[in-house]
Each structure stands twice: as C-alpha cells, then as structure tokens.
Design a protein that fits this description.
312 residues, alpha+beta, Heat Shock Protein 90, Actin, Chain A, domain 4, three-stranded antiparallel sheet, 6 helices
C-alpha cells in the first residue's frame, strides 16, 4: 500500500510537471509559427512592392518612349514645310517716274529664297523694259503676267533642276533723275558639287524711255581696253601689268582681253562698270571681276548713244 501510494504521488508530480511545461512549449510553437507567417507576409509584400515598382518603371519607360517617338515623328513631319506665299514689303519712290516694292518668297523644301525690288508704277516704257529684263534674268521661259512678280518669283524655284537650290535677289543699285541701274545676284548650288555658281546680271535704263545700255554702245575694245585694264588692276589691288596677268587666265597677254561675252555694262554714280562672269577671265576664287572706269575718262571716246547715259 505504501508503494502504491508513493507511485501515485510520483505519477501525479510528473503529470503536474508535464502540464506546467506544455503551455510553454505551445507558446513557443505558436510564437515560431507567427514569426514564420510574418516573414512570409513580409516577403510577399516586398515582392508585390517590387513588382509594382517594376510595373511603374515599365509604364514610365513606355510613356517616355512613346513621347520620344511622337517627337521624332513631329520633327520628321515638319522638317520640310511647304512653300510660303509671296510676302510684300516696303514701297519706294525711286524717282517721280518710278516706284518699286519689295517682295520675298521662300521655299524651305527646296532651301531656296527669292527677293525682288520690283517696279510697280511709273513710266510705262520704263516699267515694261525693266520687267522684261527681270524675267530674262530670272526665268526666260516664264510666260505669265508681269503685272505682279508673284508667279515669276515662284517659277525661279520650280524651274530648278533636281538637286539644285537658289538664292536670288533683284534690286536697284543706283538711280538719278536720268537713269536707273538694276542688278540680279544669284547663287545656284547643285547637291554634291564642290561649290555653287554665283552670277551677277546688271542693266542700266534711261528713265525717259526705258532704253537699256548695251555693249554695242561702247567704243571699240581697242579704245577701251587700256581703261578696262586699269579698272581690273583696281579690282585685283595691283598696279603692275605682270601682277594683273598672274591673276587672270587670258593666255599671258593683256591684249587678249575682250569685252564680256554675256554680261552688259552698267553705270553707277561715278563709273561705267564692265563685269565679267565667274571663270570668264579668272579662277573661281576671284569672284566676279568688275572693271570700274571713271565716267570722266569716257567723254572723249563716247559715241552718241553712250553720251545719252553719261548726260553729255
């Protein structure tokens, strides 16, 4: 009986011990499980946040790319706008018998620009003569009306060959109560060429009747050659014949110098000017050589027609 009682006491004690330990183990297991759950939830949140961040960045890159493509498309679409219309500018009273107006036309697609100082009112003979000359220098094949310059200006661009661009300006460079001088400067460039080709065309008209100064009104070349040589020396900034010859391409003899083949003489305030085309008597680097002859040196050799322009 005593042994049985002792055994019961021992068993009861063990039970009590086990009961006292069980809650602690349960709490530990629950605490561990909670920590594991928290870690899993944390990792899930981190993944979700990372995924959301990547999604946001992806959308941002897409928008940026879309915007960039849109900008590139815009630049491509508007890089070469259509031609602008002819723009009217200032009106000028050159003399009592001549009024001009400025006009400009730009064709950005062909990278070309045309500017006119165009005669719009005055002596009809003078107007007709000047307008016909402008047409000849700008586009001799133009068959439209010359009352306004709009279509003529546009034709200067549309008549270009493929790959060509043009910068052209027609303006009054001198006038008096007796005469007016007009000039057309142009520069045509062909794609792929080493350089463009400059050109200057000039004309002097009597205001009274529109008569234009021409080469056949000048004295014979043998009489005017010494004056042309002096004028070219001034152009090339030299005083010796040998230096002038080294600047020219006329066969090594100044007596080979002739009147220009295509250009016409023109008058400014103090000079009769004889212009030569690029390459005509000198290399491209020389530009457009002009022999300027003082008007007072022409009196003794001028014919009757030339004297009309000299006022003699």
């Amino acid at each position: 009986m005593k042994f049985s009682t002792l055994a019961k006491v021992i068993l009861l004690s063990l039970s009590l011990v086990m009961l006292s330990v069980q809650p602690a183990d349960g709490k530990t297991r629950r605490s561990s499980k909670a920590r594991t759950t928290a870690v899993v939830k944390s990792k899930s949140k981190s993944k979700a946040k990372s995924k959301k961040s990547r999604s946001k960045k992806s959308r941002s890159r897409y928008k940026s790319s879309k915007k960039s493509i849109s900008k590139r498309s815009t630049r491509y679409t508007y890089a070469a706008p259509k031609s602008t219309g002819v723009i009217k500018g200032a009106v000028k009273a050159i003399t009592a018998d001549l009024t001009t107006q400025e006009f400009s036309y730009t064709n950005k697609r062909k990278n070309s620009e045309v500017k006119f100082e165009y005669p719009i009112a005055g002596n009809k003979q003078l107007l007709d003569a000047m307008r016909i000359w402008i047409r000849k220098t700008v586009n001799p094949d133009f068959g439209g009306s010359l009352d306004t310059p709009d279509e003529l200006m546009k034709s200067a661009v549309t008549s270009l060959e493929s790959g060509e661009t043009i910068k052209l300006e027609t303006k009054i460079i001198y006038s008096s109560n007796r005469l007016v001088t007009i000039c057309t400067d142009s520069y045509i460039y062909t794609s792929g060429a080493a350089h463009g080709m400059p050109s200057r065309k000039t004309a002097t008209f009597l205001i009274s009747d529109g008569l234009m100064l021409s080469m056949n009104m000048l004295p014979p070349i043998r009489e005017l050659r010494p004056l042309i040589i002096d004028g070219l020396k001034n152009y090339f900034n030299t005083t010796s014949n040998s230096d002038l010859l080294s600047s020219l391409q006329i066969g090594g003899d100044l007596n080979n110098l002739q009147y220009p083949e295509r250009a016409t003489p023109y008058i400014t305030e103090k000079y009769l000017n004889i212009p030569y085309s690029a390459y005509e008597i000198a290399p491209y680097s020389a530009g457009i050589p002009v022999a300027a002859i003082p008007l007072d040196r022409l009196t003794a050799i001028a014919g009757e027609q030339l004297k009309q322009f000299l006022g003699k």
